[in-house]
Amino acid sequence: NKMVAYDDPEYAITEEVGVEAAMELIGYAMNMAAARKECPAKDIVSQLVAAEGQGNLSSDEFGFFVLLLAVAGNETTRNAISHGMHAFLTHPDQWELYKRERPAPTAEEIVRWATPVVSFQRTATQDTEIGGQKIKKGDRVGLFYSSANHDPEVFENPEAFDITRDPNPHLGFGGGGPHFCLGKALAVKEIELIFDAVADVLPDLTLVAAPRRLRAAWLNGVKELRVRTAS
């Protein structure tokens, strides 16, 4: 959390601490990559850094790759799961439906509903126009996924949590192209597995209190979600 939540007063840390935490993780990964190059092991790190120049990652590239995975593969999915559990417990009809039928579109609706990444920024590479707004080459453009995933022009009844929603053209995994989420299949499987396990083992969960949310402009995070079970 030091890397992404340094503006939350509960953590009482600064942006400098966040940068330091990121650099420590990058340094750790770079040293690991260098060690595997010198002495390969039967692990994925060795495969990613071996035979540099043939599409594999340099030590520097591997360091930033690990930093990317630490956020993209952790913050996003675990927050989607927390928001999904909260959605189920505040929409008991959907929880009962899930326990009975396990609808296939469930994970996609949880990601749409949660939208773990709130916003991102891109820089225009050429003059263009979006929704009547002229954008010049070099302009910075804000992408607000929370808005897009609740767009009434795209989604029927967008404020409803509906685990049977299909089609569901949300942008929680990106909008396609080179920035589409590489880990989508893994994230969907993780969400399915955790809610299958909860439904099988703790089907009578109830909410104790409203979630305590992370104060952050980038991530829609949950710091605490208290529940209880009667069993």
Please describe what this structure looks like:
- With 231 residues, this protein is mostly helical.
- The protein has a single domain, classed as Cytochrome p450, CATH 1.10.630.
- Helices cover 45% and strands 11% of the residues.
- The strands form four sheets. The protein has a two-stranded antiparallel ribbon with strand order 1-4. A two-stranded antiparallel sheet has the order 2-3.
- α3 packs parallel to α7.
- The longest helix is centred in the first third of the chain and has 32 residues.
- The radius of gyration is 20 Å and the shape is globular.
- The two termini are 33 Å apart.
- The model has no long low-confidence stretch (mean pLDDT 89).
